[in-house]
From TrEMBL:
Ranges for domain SAF: 345-411
Coiled-coil residue windows: none
Pfam families found in the cross-reference section: DRL_cat, SAF
Superkingdom per UniProt: Bacteria
InterPro entries assigned: DRL_cat, NAD(P)-bd_dom_sf, SAF
Listed name of the protein: Putative homoserine dehydrogenase-like protein
Organism: Planifilum fimeticola
CDD domains: SAF_DH_OX_like (cd11616)
């Protein structure tokens, strides 16, 4: 970030700034707006939210005077206000993507179908797109990445989210010539795949978070989605469906993430996984075949080998997103993107017995949770990607609790953008 800080300062001194269009003024969006106000050479010039008052509140909390905030859905008024040095709030997400005054679009909605729509329009309008929406990325990201490459813009996940933080460790280790055995993250709570919003309601109230979001953490869907993003960026696979998810402390990881014949739990190297016991950090387990490097690592107190763990004990979510914005704008580089295509998938599994005609309620709800599979397994089983599950999807036949849903089990009553993009992606063989 030091180089980016200098470049941003120089850019500001030249009379410029990177102009960000933000979609979504929830917790992640609010954090981004406040953080950007502390950064030279960057401004969130327009924020779109279905509740405009949330965006206005976010700007005021960041120190923006109310007199400098204009609420409008008129593109011409918005352009003039931004040109005069003001900030714009709108309900119209498409307007925020289309304005000439916007250089980089950030999606902070967390809703798969909305994220797919935003990314699609951003790329068509030749805007760099930064997603705080891993659910959209793992569903249609390989196609969006290909589209962005053709359009000459950057498609990227964000720094600060766990996949982005893991990617930093992977880039660091692999660039130095280490063999990376495993990539993973800590999980904040024990896995309960049948968790529902009702079951976590009290905890959600205490923490001031959405019960569906908390349920998606507890039931493991968020973890599965995040590690699918890492898989598609690196080519690493889950060692077993759903990953191992052992309970362990940091010092046990080098031995644990070894091959079974070496006393570990792995069937292969180059895997993604999660651990109950090292949250909120992310990790990479590495090794080398060079005796001198082993000696150096032991001298540096990295452990006895032959495997060693690199660990980052924090991730700052949207507070780090400005790094991804600046990298995309100045260097045309993604923080993390599905460069390997569709390597893994997070598919929908029934949380309860599902009946014909029953509507599915999506991630963190009452009907399904996510499980990571290799893309090969997903294609073989015709398993339904969890990012396609929503209010427009109903059951065609009965599926028992704990079974994977397939395309043949459901019908989509209205094909929205994410369904259309997914169909294109599958026809393209990605």
């Amino acid at each position: 970030m030091l180089g980016l800080k200098r470049r941003l300062k120089e850019y500001e001194m030249e009379g410029n700034c990177i102009r960000v269009g933000l979609i979504g003024a929830g917790q992640m969006g609010r954090g981004l707006i406040s953080q950007v106000e502390k950064i030279a050479g960057m401004e969130v010039v327009i924020t779109a939210d279905i509740v405009p008052e949330r965006a206005e509140t976010a700007y005021r909390k960041a120190g923006v005077p109310s007199s400098s905030i204009l609420r409008t859905d008129d593109p011409e008024k918005a352009e003039r206000w931004i040109a005069s040095g003001g900030w714009v709030v709108t309900r119209d997400g498409n307007m925020a993507v289309q304005l000439d005054s916007v250089d980089v679009v950030v999606d902070a909605t967390g809703i798969p179908e909305v994220g797919a729509e935003i990314a699609w329009h951003a790329i068509l309008n030749r805007k760099h797109i930064v997603l705080l929406n891993v659910e959209a990325d793992v569903t249609v990201g390989p196609l969006l990445k290909k589209m962005a490459d053709v359009a000459g813009v950057v498609y990227t996940g964000t720094a600060g989210d766990e996949p982005g933080a893991i990617m930093e460790l992977y880039d660091f280790a692999s660039s130095l010539g280490f063999e990376v055995i495993a990539l993973g993250k800590g999980k904040n709570n024990p896995l309960d795949v049948y968790a529902t919003p009702d079951g976590v309601a009290d905890e959600a109230r205490r923490k001031g978070v959405n019960p569906k979001m908390l349920a998606s953490f507890r039931d493991g869907t968020k973890t599965m989605v995040e590690m699918t993003a890492v898989s598609n960026a690196t080519g690493f696979l889950p060692d077993v469906p759903g990953m191992h998810g052992p309970k362990a402390t940091l010092d046990r990881l080098p031995r644990l993430f070894s091959l079974r014949e070496e006393g570990g739990i792995l069937h292969r190297k180059g895997i993604v996984d999660y651990v109950d016991g090292v949250a909120p950090g992310v990790f990479a387990v590495i090794t080398t075949d060079n005796p001198e490097v082993h000696d150096q690592l032991k001298y540096l107190k990295m452990g006895d080998g032959p495997h060693y763990v690199l660990y980052r004990p924090y991730h700052l979510t949207s507070l780090e997103t400005p790094i991804s914005v600046a990298r995309a704008f100045f260097h045309q580089e993604p923080t993390i993107a599905p460069c390997c295509g569709s390597v893994s998938e997070t598919v929908a599994v029934a949380k309860k017995d599902l009946q014909p005609g029953e509507a599915l309620d999506g991630i963190g709800g009452y009907t399904v949770y996510g499980r990571i599979l290799s893309a090969e397994e997903q294609r073989r089983e015709r398993a339904l990607p969890i990012g396609l599950v929503g209010a427009n999807v109903r059951m065609k036949r009965r599926v028992k609790k704990g079974e994977i849903l397939t395309y043949d089990d459901v019908e989509c009553e209205e094909r929205n953008r994410i369904w259309i993009l997914r169909e294109f992606m599958e026809k393209d063989g990605q």
